[in-house]
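As agreed, record copied across for absentees:
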Amino acid sequence: MHPVLFKIGFLTIHTYGVLVAAGFLLGLGLAVKQAKKEGIPSNKIVDLGFYVLLSALIGSRLLFILINASHYIENPLEIFKIWEGGLVFYGGVLLTVPTFLWYVRKHSLGVWSTADLFAPSLAVAHAIGRIGCFFAGCCHGRPAEGLPWAVTFTDPESLAIIGIPLHPTQLYESLGEFINFFILIILRRYKSFNGQLFMTYILLYSVLRFIVEFYRGDIGRGFITSQLSFSQGISILMFLVAVAGLIVLRKRRMRKES
C-alpha cells in the first residue's frame, strides 16, 4: 500500500518500521501495567522487553535469510535492509526463548508467570506489526480474482505483486492476532496455573498461522513439501508443544494442591 511513510531529504521513514515500533511499545506498556498489578518491578520488565525485541528481530531475520539463502548470497548488502520487511516470526521465537530464560533466571523471576504476563503483549504487538507488513507488501497473499476484499498493490516500492488482486493475508493474520489478544485478556481472569496464558497463545497462533499459510503468495518463505510450507511445519510442532505444555503444567499444579 504505502511502504514509505514520508521522506525528509536523504532520510526515509518506512511505514513497516514505524508500526513494528508502535506494536512493541504498546505491548511493552501493557506488560509493565500488568507487572505493577502483580508486584513485579517494572524496570525488570522494560529491560526484558528490549532483550526480547532484539533477539526477536535477529532471530526472525536470520531465519528469513536462511530460507532465502541463494538470494542473499548474491545480494549480501540486502541482509541489513530490515526496514523493507523480511522477518519470520518463528525464527524470532527460537532465539527469544533462550534469551527470555536467561534473563528471568538471572533476575529470579518466575519463568511461567512472566511468560503469561507477556502473552497478550506478544499478540497485540504482532497484530500491529502485521499491519506494517500490509503497508510494506511483504508476506502478501496469492492471487484472488473476484474476491470482494482482495487488495491490489500499486506502489512500485511495494514488496507485493503489483497490479493483481491478492488475498490480504497480512490483515488475516493481524485480525487473528487481535482476536487472540482479547481471548488471552479474558482468560487471564480465569487463569488456574502459571504458563496457561503463554501456552494458549502458542496454541492459538500455531492454528492461525497454519491456516493463513494456505493463502500466502510469497514463495520465498520455504517449503517442506509442495503443499506444506516451512512455517506450517513449525506450526504443527508448536501446536503439539503447546498441548503437551498445557497438560503438563496443569497436572503439576494439581499435584501441588493434592
Summary: The beta strands are 4-8, 11-14.
